[in-house]
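Action item from last meeting closed. Structure (280 res):
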């Protein structure tokens, strides 16, 4: 007679084995929350005649979105000289989307994507504007400006160093290659590579830290950090419980996860005009 360490429960025991009583409720595992989708918001202003400059600016923003969706250049709109009522109207229309960017340097600039993808609000000392683009130009031009320099092989080497040296050689090679804006990204997936905590510490010091950090929130989060090596980004994805699920380096002009796609910009053009239409 054979024996087993696995024993089935006797019939009639366990969840679901008994009939429900009148006051019983089925208990379901909570699903992850936090995924936001676009829903049209009607600004508090009930007459566009009260905010003519703000309304005109938003129409110009919609036109810029349509041009950018067709491959046109981005466009900026200065908000500094708008009257207070018009400025408040524009802020109300824009709202806050799921992508924020920190750009360090002089001046430091905080960027918040609006509820309209590809429409960004930039604020800093002497900076108060809207920019329509897949991503603000300043986020790219300052990306590799070092906050912490790339130390390369001069980075401290922990005792548990394993594969970091070979990974660094590949990252440096990827960064040094000429790259066009439309080239496909090349990815080094740390999640799939054997490595130690010492490897991660060494690589962080070896590639340094650039000036642009991008956070995209939604169903979980994506954190994108420029390194101090040109065209090299650290991209990490977290689930809804804030657990790291994917850790990569991307060699590219800018990771696709940070960009507003052409179809997003086209949708933004239509949605802005829809909002204005409700106020006529």
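Sequence:
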């Amino acid at each position: 007679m054979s024996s087993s360490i696995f024993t089935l429960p006797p019939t009639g025991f366990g969840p679901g084995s008994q009939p429900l009583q009148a006051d019983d409720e089925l208990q379901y595992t909570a699903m992850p929350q936090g995924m936001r989708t676009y829903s049209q918001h009607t600004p508090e202003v009930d007459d566009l005649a009260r905010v003519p400059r703000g309304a005109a600016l938003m129409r110009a923003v919609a036109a810029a979105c349509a041009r950018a969706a067709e491959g046109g250049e981005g466009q900026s709109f200065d908000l500094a000289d708008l009257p207070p009522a018009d400025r408040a109207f524009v802020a109300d229309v824009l709202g806050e989307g799921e992508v924020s960017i920190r750009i360090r340097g002089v001046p430091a600039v905080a960027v918040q994507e609006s509820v309209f993808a590809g429409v960004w609000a930039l604020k800093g000392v002497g900076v108060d504007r809207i920019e329509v683009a897949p991503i603000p130009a300043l986020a790219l031009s300052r990306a590799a400006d070092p906050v912490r320099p790339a130390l390369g092989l001069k980075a401290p080497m922990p005792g548990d160093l394993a594969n970091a040296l070979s990974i660094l050689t590949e990252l440096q090679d990827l960064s040094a290659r000429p790259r066009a804006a439309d080239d496909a990204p090349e990815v080094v997936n740390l999640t799939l590579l054997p490595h130690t905590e010492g490897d991660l510490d060494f690589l962080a010091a070896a590639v340094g830290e650039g000036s642009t950090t991008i956070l995209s929130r939604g169903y979980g989060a994506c954190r994108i950090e420029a390194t101090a090596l040109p065209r090299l980004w650290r991209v990490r994805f977290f689930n809804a419980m804030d657990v790291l699920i994917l850790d990569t380096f991307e060699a590219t002009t800018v990771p696709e996860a940070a960009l507003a796609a052409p179809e997003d910009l086209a949708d933004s053009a239509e949605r802005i005009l829809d909002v204005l239409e409700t106020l006529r």
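Note appended to the action item: The first strand starts at residue 75 and ends at 78.
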